[in-house]
Amino acid sequence: MSVLEFLANGLVFSSIIVLSSIGLSLVYSIADFANFAHGDTMTVGAYAALVTFGFVGALGGEVLGLPLGFFVALAVGVGVAAVVAVVTHKLVYEPLDVDSIGLLITSIGVAFVYRAVIQLGFGTGFIEFEITLLRPIEALLPYGIRMTLHDVAIVVSAAVLVAGLHTLLQYTDLGRKMRATADNPSLARVSGIRTGRIELWTWIIGAGLAGAGGVFLGLYNNISPRMGFNILLVVFAAVILGGIGSVYGAMAGGFLIGMINQLTPLLPRLGQELPLIPESFGIPIGIEYANAIAFLIMVAVLLLRPSGIAGEEAT
Amino acid sequence: MSVAVRERFGGLTRAEQGAVGFVVLLAALLFLGLLTGGLAPTYFLYLVGLVGMYVLLSFGLNVQWGYTGLINFSVAAFFGLGAYGTALLTAGNSPLGVEGSRLLGIIPLTIIGLLVAIVLAVVVAVAIGIPTLRLRADYLAIASLGLAEVVRLVFLNQRDWTNGSAGLRGIPGFFDGWPVLETFPEAMPGLRVEALELSIPGVFSTEILGFTLGTPFWQALLNVAFVLVLVGIVFAVLRRAHRSPWGRVMRTIRSDEDLAEALGKDTYAFKMQAFVLGSVIMALAGVFYAHLNLFVSPGDLEPINTFYVWIAVILGGSGSNRGAMFGGFVVIAIREGTRFLGELLPGALPTAGIPFTDLVVSFPTVIETTYTTVVNNFASTRLLAVGLLIVLVMRFRPQGMLPPQRELIWPRSVAESAGPGETNPRETIEEEATATAHAADASAGVGDDGQTAGDATDAEPAGDDSTPDASGPDDGTADGSEDAPDEGGGRNE
Q1: So where are chain B's domains?
Q2: Averaging pLDDT over each range in A101-105, B447-451, B482-486, which range is the top one?
Q3: Residue A188 to residues A181, B245, B299: CA-CA distances in angstroms?
């Protein structure tokens, strides 16, 4: 496989990580705790889309190699993830009288409940969307890139969502209020912002993006009850690398971590791929440790620069 | 029930009564299973061993989270290190195994395995602790979960060392190679417990008992004895440590780390000590597990195992060792209860005929298919129970069922300060001897422990220093810290 192909894979995987890490970062900064249920929110979105797709999969039309029904399913997945998160917020987190560590521990319980309910309904096995696999795009093959239209769809959709979020945060009233609340909740309250409502919107947006990430992850690999929890630590690594509380940092962190994750196979033959380095140079590590690398980067960032790439200033 | 027992029971708080009731009920259920033959004696002892294992793990986590406030999400990793530490040395198919059951023909290999496990746990704990213990609490949680995953990936993927996902088989019992104890199970006579027939004529008749206690039974008994010894030693050490000046510094760090720093404590060093101590205890549980189960695989390092232990600790009451014991029982109840229920439920909903008519009532198809899917995936209810329990405990009783109260105080101090109206000298269960005298007037005023605790600890005898930090300058910590951590036992005041 060529370096370009790894980069292409990295781009697709990064898109998924970026979507999930934005949500995690938003909740981290506004609800003020590390939400361990975020990964399983992704799983919820994926399964909701899977079920919907079973009903509307036949809807005609085709965009980027995907039937229109898939985008309906995507919307439902996003919606269900958001609703589940809001209900959880109202039922579980809001009545709690504990500090942020207590919330963190509670969110693990919430994660287990999500996953257990999914497993009770669908079993523990792997499922895939019933979409025929496409052949790689011919035009890219000469460059050594094997990329299907589905991959392009993931990247484009993620880009659209990220652009939408950017617009929301920078140019709308809600976005300004969210940034104010993330920055200084008390000051925001004093200024007349209803922070409770902002928090609710944070859950909706964060969980919605997570749901989208889950659907795309399901399309990219496959769907299983463990998918969200398995990727959660990678997403945390992205958020911490980007700087907790910073949405744009989370985007950068997600992009970097996703890339590194997919470029792991290159590490043992680094010398052959890069100029100016002896041929024999390489870091002997197998792809099975791709996630481990992300964790180690995360620990290193926490030690050396706990504020992450984006530094102190939030959003 | 004798009067003394009833009096003691009346002297407990509601929560304590509930906990005692739960344990008694569980024991009764198990005993019933034993009597009716539904539960083989060997399996019963295996369960007791597992309870002991979870108690050990909870003790370990209690040192880290309960005493010091370190959020360690890598319990399963240290448990796995302990299990693999001894298994790699002794297992039949281990790539790094040693032949025979004794080293140099003298020392039993399992002892070496135990030491290897401890050393491994210490080394990894220090290695993980150096980068993570300086971090904020929530960062520590994330980082420790990540590092636990790294440990699991290493055991899963380094096939040439660990045999990969196939796991390690043929692990000998812990007492293999020991003098006397090695042959104990074979040497004991097989006991045949004759079946008894219980019957009410014409109504029902059933057979109870009726099993043979052979070598496996004695082997299991030996395992239980082993875990009891481990639990006993660890409990004694922890109780001593927790009440010592060292324990007071720990509690200070937990409630206010800046305060501890301001009082001149090297909090990093203290946290490292607690982290290593807790990890070694978890590794001990792993060693026991390897020699109980005789098989270990990377599956034992799954994160869910970490959260079983978390359930045990936060449900029992963070910082409370008897709470940890209670939690151990609950975890086994969840694990075995869901398994039992799953076997009990029929695979499909029965259709019931209404008597004297030809009508057959059947459920709508939706309910029927849902039921069938749920029953088929019933193992997942375990996860559901763990999750719900975490949420419910945090919602309704964040301090846990049995928060530490009297545990932190020297029994003698309690007895001395036992004036009318100012204290209630109810003791923890394990401190029977000094407590029974005052148990009667305990039911009133359970809530005002914080004040009592402060007073009582001030009256502590001076010569009880088990750690070098106990001398003069420490008095400041002792006085300054007592009020905060003891107020309600919960972290979230």
Answers
A1: 42-180+218-300, 188-213, 406-486
A2: A101-105
A3: 5, 44, 47
